[in-house]
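Appendix B, record 7
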Amino acid sequence: MDKNLLGPVMLDVAGLELTEREIKKLLHPQCGGVILFARNFSSVEQVTKLIAAIRNIRPALLIAVDQEGGRVQRFRDGFLHLPPLASLGNTHDKNPDQALKDAENLGFLMATECRAVDVDFSFAPVLDIDYGNSHVIGDRAFHSDPEAISQLAAAYCRGMKQAGMAAVGKHFPGHGYVAADSHIDIPEDERDYSEIVQQDLQPFKYLVEKGIEGLMPAHVIYTACDAQPAGFSEYWLQTVLRGQLGFKGAIFSDDLSMAAAKVAGTAAERAQAALNAGCDMLLVCNDPDAADEVLESLTGMDHSHAQKRLQAMRGKQGQDWERVHESQAWLAAVDQSRRYLSA
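Structure tokens (predicted):
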């Protein structure tokens, strides 16, 4: 097995240390990455050791986390407590120029700390529009205006890039309009394609033009456009995202264990459907048996076509934890962002 090749499956792990069963999975050729959750974190020292253990098994694996801030921040004790992205939208309403500077600083701070413990990337930023309908999105969204979202997200991604981190925008083509939570339900968005294009698609279009490295589709069915959720839809991923928007980066499925994904069948069937639609990497979380099923169902599959896109997600220029927090760039960004941060 070429350990530098990345398989199409991103797995989770159960706790603070690896189990023998998990080590076996990480060595499977179809594994390409690990996503960490709050249950995998107790301290900076512990998560650094956990990541080092993963790297020791397969150095090339991509390691990711959801470190958005606000309600969705997996690493907390010892890390900066980051604000929800909506706080930047609130500043934008009063002082757009200041909000863009703040967005860049917060993107840099988030990414720098994650890179300091050797996380490759965070699934951020959220590009959804806050319509006031979705509790699962809510203040995770920058704003209710697509133009404000586009500008704030681009600034946030610039900050991430300065810290050596690629960005993953989510949830294409927009999860903010529907009230249902795709973790536990099957959301359906009945709007016409023209309305989605004029509103929700605009931040994704803008970030694609700016060179965003990764995107994650929504587990939402846009009934006027296709019968499948976007993450299983060739229409959304191939015709619209790759074709019309010209996106060249990596496409990550949302978690295939979520309720909305189960419309595509068994775990193995969901994985194949997502790959057929155009996903480059599949998240299979919170269901170890499903992860086993997916890995075995893909045994022998050639994933060479996606390697360049996935390799572009690898983190760059990370520094150790102490050096990061002593750097002038870090201290300046913290000072400029103090009204948003809590220790």
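Remarks on this record: The radius of gyration is 19 Å. The chain is about 40% helix and 10% strand.
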